[in-house]
Design goal:
The chain contains five helices and five strands; from the N terminus they run H-E-H-E-H-E-H-E-H-E. The strands form two sheets. It has a three-stranded antiparallel sheet with strand order 2-1-5. The protein has a two-stranded antiparallel ribbon with strand order 3-4. The termini are far apart.
């Protein structure tokens, strides 16, 4: 039992120190969509999806395609649509340590 608890603590420490969990500063354009930073990259992505789904910005036929409104266009380099798998590349431009 003690071994399991020790192993669990080690795993939690590794996860807590992950680069995805480090608080990051957000650009003003990104803060306008997800709220005030700093926040972890994983939290930014979660809040971005809440925004996208709340405003019904997913393509009806292909949910992987995001139809950008004016706020998202500022984050996604002015593109009308963006594939969900390319979002991380755009977000990195709006995050700093």
């Amino acid at each position: 039992m003690a071994i399991l608890l020790k192993r669990s603590n080690i795993i939690q420490n590794i996860m807590a120190n992950s680069a995805f969990m480090q608080p990051m500063k957000l650009s003003a354009d990104l803060e306008a969509v997800v709220g005030k930073g700093p926040m972890a990259r994983s939290e930014v992505v979660s809040k971005l999806w809440v925004y996208i789904k709340g405003k019904n910005l997913q393509d009806a036929k292909d949910k992987r395609i995001i139809k950008n409104d004016e706020a998202l266009k500022k984050i996604f380099d002015g593109q009308e649509t963006v594939h969900m798998m390319k979002m991380a590349g755009f977000l990195s431009k709006h995050l700093s340590k």
